[in-house]
Amino acid sequence: FYFTGIALGPRGRLDIPVLFIPNTMKLYEAQVVIHVMRENGENWPYEHSAKIHKDLKSITLAENGGIRGIRWIYPIHGIPEAPQQKSISAVVRCRARQRVEQRVEVRLTGAVPGATAMPAGRNAAVVDRSTPVTIQGFSTTAEFLYELQYQSDKIKSQLDSLVGIHLMQKERDTESGTVTLIFNIVFAPNKPMKNAAILVVQCAKGGIWKFPLLFIAMEPQVDDVINIEAAGLNKEAVVGFRLTSQRR
């Protein structure tokens, strides 16, 4: 789109609205180019105009010397994000002071470039896999980045050392445009807690998908039972036991 004849005074301000309405889950690239010329049509005098490199995109030179116009070029990357449905969170549950590994499968719709796939308006699904999953081997050509996001930096600092995530398998369906990713999540809580997280997956070729997760750490098992036998009425009974600290 081209807009011409916009007058801007000294120290003026120009707001340029940019509208992005993607219909597929891929990266879109564009440029906003602002070309400024003097209102009276004259050139800006510049003594060393001959030394300006001809490939310099920010300057347009006049034939008789001087600067005819100045350009500002702003590259824009449009990254579509699938709408997050109100789907049920995948729950990772474990007792405190124990460790659990759990497989979580997510489906990314429209992640295959060039496929006659679902538009970005249909979101993917998250499936809880408590047992290992076997999939026919077919690795995708696209690379995926992923991370866990938490509600606050405080929760992130608490769970970073307790939660691990690794991409185990991936496959794609070229007809439907759906990519299936299987993650292995390790959860080793040290105390009871309940925290929500978001698994964010981004395709290197464009597109972001988000999936809700819920980490629940239950009360730990009882370490031992201490029995104290009564020595008699109104008499003290004492029993000793050792406590070993796991930290300094």
UniProtKB/TrEMBL annotation:
A cellular component annotation (GO) from this entry: cilium
GO biological process: sperm axoneme assembly
Pfam families found in the cross-reference section: Ig_CFAP47
Stated name of the protein: CFA47 protein
InterPro entries listed in its UniProt record: Ig_CFAP47
Ranges of residues in domain CFAP47-like immunoglobulin-like: 81-217
